[in-house]
Amino acid sequence: MIRKISIDQLLPGMYVVDLHKRWFDHSLWQSKFKVRDEAHVSKIREEGISEISIDTDKGADLPPTPIARINQIEQKLKSLAEIRAATPPTVSLGEERRRAGRLLHEASNTVSGLMLAAKAGSNVDAAYLEPIVSKMIASVIRNPDALVPLARLKRLDAYATEHAVATAALIIAFGRHQGLPEPEIEKLALGTMVKDIGHAALDAKLTAKPGQLSQAEFSIVQSHVEEGLAVLDATTRLSETSVAVVLEHHERYNGCGYPYRMAGDEISVAGRMAAIVDTYDAMTSDRPYRAAMSPSHTLRQLYDEAGFQYDPALVTAFVKTVGIYPVGTLVLLESGHLAVVGQLHADNMLTPTVRVIYHTGRQQYVTTPVDVDLSRKIGNHYGQIVRAETFERWGISPLRWQPA
């Protein structure tokens, strides 16, 4: 395809077919050629040429803009949603949720053992986690709406281990939704499970401090990134992808992260994905210094930071992965009822199937919970979602009302 571009857009590898300047007004002896390198680009600029036509079939094209990247991923996600709709879960949500509960317990115990070893100054072998990661991937394949919502429910006194497991579950779902091959997803999940192993070497009072950290304290906390890799390197041959997750999950798209202040595409895709799942899970969890935010509120904040702290295309993809109102979220309906999101519709994230459980006006549970498909125009007497709520605000047990 022939494309006209400005001289400022010219890049090495492009094939020029028209200089848009008379031959006697420049010293270039060829009118059609492939741009060799940056020096060649500079020479063409020096000729006073302002516009050029390139043949994208014979050479490089313009790199995609951020909007184009988002559009490309949106199109890919649409195809993946169609594939997912055509291949329904092989196990019911209730059955997979029971399996997922046992798996999360096993995973947390294994991670806890590794963290205790690191705290004692022993070397940590991440290979112990490989069977756990394989089981987690199998769970998400059987039914993607069981493991991730259940992993979000944590005990405050076990945050470190359960956060490691929850972020692994998230990145598995994220990777599958992007169509990544299973071996690559395994590497992502393994890196996510051990990314905070360096915290074990820090003072527990410091990592759980309810107030704001001083600059000196924050510098110590930042050291957990490289400290973790040092502990792991002694006995474990981690893949490049896993290492990228460990080292880069606190880097930020605008270069304001740590430890290396990398920016944009300097950060690997693995690191950019890990930054999103790490932030999302931390914000949706109770911490000593603040209460958990609702998943939908957290997603809005991530979306607002897209292009600044996080890769905009990957944020868009992540929102599509978990849904605007993720499974297990408590929502307020127009009728004044509270409901728990039970199933997402890939073609419309705003109208999931929900289970109505509570009337806010009467401040009491409904006699019999009702399942309602908000996408249906007939038979829905409860209206649409007004906003997400928190279980804590209404004194409702999130574990009791998880979809089954």
- Rg over C-alpha atoms, rounded to the nearest angstrom: 25 Å
Can you identify the CATH superfamily of the largest domain?
Hypothetical protein af1432
> Treating each run of at least 4 consecutive H or I residues as one helix, how many helices?
15
| Helix and strand sequence | EEEHEHHHHHHHHHHHHHEEEEEH
Average pLDDT reading:
83
Here the CATH topology of the largest domain equals: Hypothetical protein af1432
Structural class: alpha+beta
Any idea how many domains? Answer: 3
The proportion of residues in beta strands is 5-15%
How helical, in percent, are the residues?
Answer: 40-55%
* Mass-distribution shape: globular
Descriptors:
44% helix; 14% strand; alpha+beta; 4-stranded antiparallel sheet; 404 residues; Hypothetical protein af1432; single chain
Describe this structure in words.
With 404 residues, the protein is of the alpha+beta class. The protein folds into 3 domains: 2-55; 70-322, Hypothetical protein af1432, CATH 1.10.3210; 330-394, no CATH class. Helices cover 44% and strands 14% of the residues. It has helices at 38-46, 66-86, 93-119, 130-142, 147-151, 159-177, 182-194, 204-207, 215-222, 224-233, 240-248, 269-283, 295-305, 312-322, 391-394; strands at 2-6, 15-18, 33-34, 51-55, 330-333, 337-345, 348-359, 364-373, 385-389. The protein has a 5-stranded antiparallel beta sheet, with helices on one face. A 4-stranded antiparallel beta sheet has the order 1-4-2-3, with no helix packed on it. A hairpin with a 4-residue loop joins strand 7 (348-359) and strand 8 (364-373). Helix 4 packs across helix 7. The model is unreliable at 66-71 and 77-83 (pLDDT under 50).
